[in-house]
UniProtKB/TrEMBL annotation:
This is IclR family transcriptional regulator. InterPro entries: GAF-like_dom_sf, HTH_MetabolicPath_Reg, Tscrpt_reg_IclR_C, Tscrpt_reg_IclR_N, WH-like_DNA-bd_sf, WH_DNA-bd_sf. GO terms for molecular function: DNA binding; DNA-binding transcription factor activity. GO terms for biological process: negative regulation of DNA-templated transcription. Residues 9-70 form the HTH iclR-type domain. PANTHER family: HELIX-TURN-HELIX TRANSCRIPTIONAL REGULATOR, ICLR FAMILY, HTH-TYPE TRANSCRIPTIONAL REPRESSOR ALLR. PROSITE patterns: HTH_ICLR (PS51077), ICLR_ED (PS51078). The lineage of its organism: Bacteria, Bacillati, Actinomycetota, Actinomycetes, Pseudonocardiales.
Amino acid sequence: MAVPAAYPVEAIDNAARILLMLVDNPSLRVADVSAELGVARSTAHRMLTTLQARDLLRQDAQTKSYGPGPALARLGIAVIGAGALRDEARLLLEKLVDDTSETAHLLVLEGTETVFVEGVESRQVIRAGLRTGQRGPAHASAAGKALLAELSREELRRRYPGARLRGGTERAVSTRRALEAELEKVRETGYATNMEESEWDLCAVAATVRNRQGVACGALSVSGPARRAGAKLALLSAAVVAAATELGARLG
């Protein structure tokens, strides 16, 4: 049972009430929030856009309503652990390896880094190795770019306040402007690539895992030696997009 705060802070209380409204209604309008909190529509709009700026909410471009943002998914993973996501992903990672003959991983985004949560190794003699638990610069990886593409421009610039980026090989994007252009391509194609950007002789393709509410929960990636993986990008991209879509549907 919730215990009333002895000295409630109104702004924090209102933000919490807005987020809790998502439990019963995954799509919020300004009028809904205004009525629920008993505030003017202009005030409700400022509250919603503030939460949107932190990626706790995301606005639908067509309906203008607000739903859960990618930061809520990351918060949920941090609170309950990645166990549920990892368990659901395992069978699909195994299928990805069967379909592509390359190593498959599940990754999440933390700040400007990707974290390898789970993986299944290829049975090829020469292959990409398992990296469970390891981290890397998001802008230099396929999964990282897939997940960064989910962020608003404001949130992306908050995470990358400087114009220059560090990490990865000489092939990795090295400026924020170049990264923003790369992320536009990811949004257009539905998948991201790593063409020897995180390390030499490694190529990867990744797609974002979104739950039924459209919230990004992680990314699936397949990777292998550059010459072999680079020659079958169409196969890898189709397989990883299909697997990410199926995993998202399983997450509810």
